[in-house]
Amino acid sequence: VVKDCATCANDTCSSVGQTCNDPNPSVLSTLDWTCTCPPPYTGVAIANQATCLIDECVEKCPTCSDNTCSNASQICNDPDHSKLSDWTCTCPPPATQSAVTA
């Protein structure tokens, strides 16, 4: 019995820093392997590379807000979890100012 990851899928996942997993190693079960994103990213795909997402307002990472907004009594917003460094701090209502991170 040879797992999908050992035969063909491991390079697909590992080439982008993801982990390959074959939940059913039976030779009768093929193309059920998954790629899983490394922490703090989330994402899993069956028989393909996963789309890795991260909420930079919640997680700890080099591009994350790391409490910058909350320390200033502001609200952190990450509009696109598939992009890095796009989070902003926004003043809570009724204030209206916001700033974009560098």
Task: Give the tags.
102 residues; alpha+beta; three-stranded antiparallel sheet; 2 helices; 15% helix
Mean pLDDT: 85
Our count of helices gives: 2
Q: What portion of the residues fall into strands of 2 or more residues?
A: 15-25%
SSE-based structural type: alpha+beta
Q: Please state the overall shape, judged from the principal axes of the Cα atoms.
A: rod-shaped
Low-confidence stretches: none
| Beta-strand segment tally | 6
Query: Approximately how much helix is present in the residues?
Result: 10-25%
How many strands, which pairing sense, and closed or not: the largest β-sheet? 3 strands, antiparallel
Radius of gyration (Å) = 19 Å
Q: Cα distance, first to last residue?
A: 51 Å
Order of helices and strands: HEEEHEEE
Spatial ordering of strands, largest sheet: 1-2-3
Description:
- The longest helix is centred in the first third of the chain and has 11 residues, at 4-14.
- This protein is 15% helix and 18% strand.
- The strands form two sheets. Strands 1-2-3 form a three-stranded antiparallel beta sheet, with helices on one face. A three-stranded antiparallel beta sheet has the order 4-5-6.
- The mean pLDDT is 85.
- By secondary structure, it is α+β, with helices and mostly antiparallel strands.
- It starts with a helix and ends with a strand.
- It is rod-shaped.
